[in-house]
Design goal:
It is a single chain. By secondary structure, this protein is an all-alpha fold. Helices cover 69% and strands 1% of the residues. The chain has a two-stranded antiparallel ribbon. The protein is elongated, with a radius of gyration of 23 Å.
């Protein structure tokens, strides 16, 4: 419910005013705002488009393979006669969901390790951060390939493998922020008042790190999408007939001269979405991190 000021003008709730103020500031960074709008449209198109375009992405029609653009197939068909538009939307769902949930697991694992190591210090710090550094010394992409070869190639396994080979950067960022905030006066006051360590950590320090986590998460989604696409392109990720933008690229490489659009569309989708997430992350850094505010 809106509040009324003394002049009788409706006054928005604090949370709503905060969101409006946030988007006004974001709109000042044109590249970040355009990226946000683009990503919003892509997600709406990918997840809601299937209710408008109801052709199955796995419906095979060999007699109509590699067809050009028609009213029945606006983006043509692939080598098996499957509708490219339907597969582009469905493949986008899988790719974007893998990117999002990989980021969620990455933030949970890396955030907890970094926060606990930074706050408690001592032997906990030594063990957790040396483990983090050891993981960073391993080529993550090749580790992901080996893990998927051994553990399987289901979407869930791809999410877990990407998350557990990319949490280290989040851990280091959260670790540094925790070290900075744990010396703050309000944290010392909380300890003096008898608050236990975990309550102090998650109630007083973690909320201060959330802006940094949001920025890292945005960039993390882009990295996860790129990783999933690369793994699927090599044939070691999510397997057909389940479509992703990565395995659509892999399937299209043999038709690069006869039907180049089969590779251009998923490749362009990956490129634009990854760029948009990176631009949005840079904009959020300027907006949420005081050290990067423009004067």
């Amino acid at each position: 419910m809106s509040e009324l000021t003394q002049e009788g003008v409706a006054k928005l709730p604090i949370q709503e005013r905060g969101f409006i103020n946030f988007f006004r500031k974001l709109a000042k960074n044109k590249i970040a705002f355009i990226s946000f709008v683009f990503l919003l449209l892509v997600h709406l198109g990918v997840f809601l488009g299937q209710f408008v375009w109801t052709i199955s992405p796995e419906s095979v029609d060999p007699a109509n393979s590699l067809a050009s653009w028609t009213s029945e197939h606006p983006l043509g068909t692939d080598d098996l006669g499957r509708d490219v538009l339907a597969r582009l939307m469905y493949g986008g769902q899988i790719t974007l969901l893998v990117g999002f949930f990989s980021m969620v697991f990455t933030v949970l694992v890396g955030g907890i390790i970094g926060a606990v190591a930074g706050f408690f210090g001592g032997w906990i710090d030594i063990i957790l951060m040396r483990f983090t550094e050891a993981m960073m010394s391993i080529p993550n992409f090749f580790l992901a390939l080996v893990a998927l070869t051994v553990l399987g190639k289901s979407p869930f396994m791809v999410i877990l493998v990407i998350a557990f080979t990319s949490w280290m950067e989040i851990a280091r960022v959260v670790y540094g922020e925790t070290l900075k905030w744990k010396e703050s006066e309000f944290v010392e006051a909380s300890k003096t008042m008898g608050s236990n360590a975990m309550r102090t950590l998650f109630k007083h320090i973690v909320p201060q790190i959330i802006p940094t986590i949001i920025i890292a998460s945005t960039l993390g989604i882009a990295w996860a999408i790129l990783t999933e696409s690369a793994i699927s392109y090599l044939g070691l990720g999510i397997q057909p007939p389940t479509a992703t933008w990565g395995n659509m690229l892999q399937n299209a490489q043999q038709y690069i001269w006869t039907a180049p659009i089969l590779g251009v569309l998923p490749g362009l989708s990956i490129t634009l979405v990854v760029l948009a997430y990176n631009f949005l992350g840079d904009g959020l850094r300027d907006l949420l991190d005081p050290k990067h505010h423009k004067k």
